[in-house]
Amino acid sequence: MTVNSSVALHYQCLKLSHEKFALNMNELNDAEQAHIQKLARQTVTLQNKVCAAPEAKIINVSDGDVAEAVKQLVDQCGDIYQFQLTLSKHKLEENDLRQILKQQLVVEAVLDHVSQDIPELAHQDAYDYYLNHSDKFSRARAWDVSQILLTINDDYPENTVKEAKKRIHQLYDTVTVDTFSTTALRHSECPSAMEGGRLGWCESGKLFGELESVLQWLPKNMVSAPIRSEIGFHILVCHAEKPPMVASFEEALPSIRELHEKRARHYMQREWIKKL
User: Fold this and answer.
1) Tens digit of pLDDT for each residue in 209-225?
2) C-beta separation of 118 from 265 below 8 A
3) Model pTM greater than 0.70?
């Protein structure tokens, strides 16, 4: 398989800049660009070595496999028109992209092939891991929460402590569970406002202490009184609650086996790559 090295390097720079920084290459500073270019060169070199290995000769990536990979990119872009615009914007030809995707599929298949004989995890080893990492299989008390937040910021007259407190109490006087989401959408200064104030599941220890103290006793589907925290004033609604829980060994065993398989696969792949 032949992939133009400069095109492959260009593609990897685009891909890695989005993965590492969520930015285009031209939006990165000099140090960031140098870092991405180094990673891209290493990636292209490694992919070429994998594809040149004897194990790659038994791999068959069909045109249908490549077409499916392209379709996934089209779906990510929204439609074929946006996909073509994205290729043009980044100066990529579709035929070149297909060759790059085919090479990536070959690399993935080779790495899967060389790491397929994973040793079985002994039951005692799994149990020892469970005992030594019990924190990974426990869950703190959690609440499914919505909030209305008015922040405190003396740079804005309406967000001084006095005015924010006045506004939050005005909202509290009128808001109900039924109107909470529309009130949050209109007035809350938390990003969750776009979701009607819904924060989702929040675990104990990850909230402001003042909020957690209220949630400890707040009945479900009732509106809390205004609460002061270090960032502002909050009104809460608790939709549901989960008690703290520690999974049994039997419950944890599938995830322990999955972790073992993942780690063993990565180890076998790294060891194989070292020999290239």
Assistant:
1) 999 999 999 999 999 99
2) yes
3) no
